[in-house]
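TA notes, week 10

Several of you asked for a full example with nothing omitted. So below is the full record: structure tokens for the whole chain, then the designed sequence directly under it. When grading your own attempts, check the secondary structure regions first.
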């Protein structure tokens, strides 16, 4: 529909050209409705719904697993069920709650504008700083948990503020969040090492590969 916008229909095309954020999400469905034969349109709709359901259930199960493993088991070990039956009940309850919350939040996405841009901005706001966590953890011996947590939180907040104050292309928020988290995280970790003498970690990529090479050398000798 980007190559042949005239096939969308005069009303829809006019609204898209006027940059109406709510009508832009209807461009693809309108194109399918007007140009696909009945059978092919149904197959397209079925494939689209299957992809949506796959993305939703993967996200819901990932969030429920993260809550159980990273929060409940670590912070509240007393809440851990004694048997598998109660554990399954925990998981099912969380899946239902997270699904209900997701449905409720989805009702408020429309007024925010184009769904694609909103998704890209939110992904960039949290994905860039999240990538910085892994980069610092794998490749920086000076990175400390306190400095990384503070820098990632600050980078996320700054990216969210830019999202709602600047009308930039959505893809640019990713490198902004990533770069800010990397610079602040490494800089603060370096300062903490100088001021408080925090020992560098031995579990970076370089240290692990060095230890592996030493073990292989000793084994061969």
């Amino acid at each position: 529909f980007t190559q042949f916008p005239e096939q969308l229909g005069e009303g829809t095309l006019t609204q898209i050209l006027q940059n109406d954020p709510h009508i832009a999400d209807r461009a693809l469905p309108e194109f399918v409705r007007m140009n696909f034969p009945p059978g092919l349109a149904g197959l397209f709709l079925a494939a689209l719904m299957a992809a949506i359901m796959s993305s939703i259930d993967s996200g819901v199960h990932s969030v429920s697993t993260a809550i159980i493993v990273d929060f409940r088991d670590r912070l509240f070990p007393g809440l851990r069920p004694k048997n598998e039956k109660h554990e399954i009940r925990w998981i099912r309850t969380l899946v239902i709650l997270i699904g209900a919350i997701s449905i409720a939040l989805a009702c408020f996405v429309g007024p925010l504008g184009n769904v694609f841009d909103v998704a890209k901005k939110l992904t960039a706001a949290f994905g860039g700083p999240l990538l910085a966590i892994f980069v610092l953890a794998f490749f920086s011996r000076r990175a400390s948990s306190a400095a990384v947590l503070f820098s990632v939180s600050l980078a996320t907040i700054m990216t969210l503020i830019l999202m709602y104050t600047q009308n930039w292309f959505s893809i640019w928020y990713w490198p902004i969040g990533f770069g800010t988290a990397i610079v602040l995280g490494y800089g603060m970790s370096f300062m903490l090492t100088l001021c408080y003498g925090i020992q560098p970690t031995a579990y970076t990529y370089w240290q692990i590969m060095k230890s592996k090479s030493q073990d292989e050398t000793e084994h061969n000798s």
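Residues 56-113 form one domain. Use that as a sanity check on your answer.
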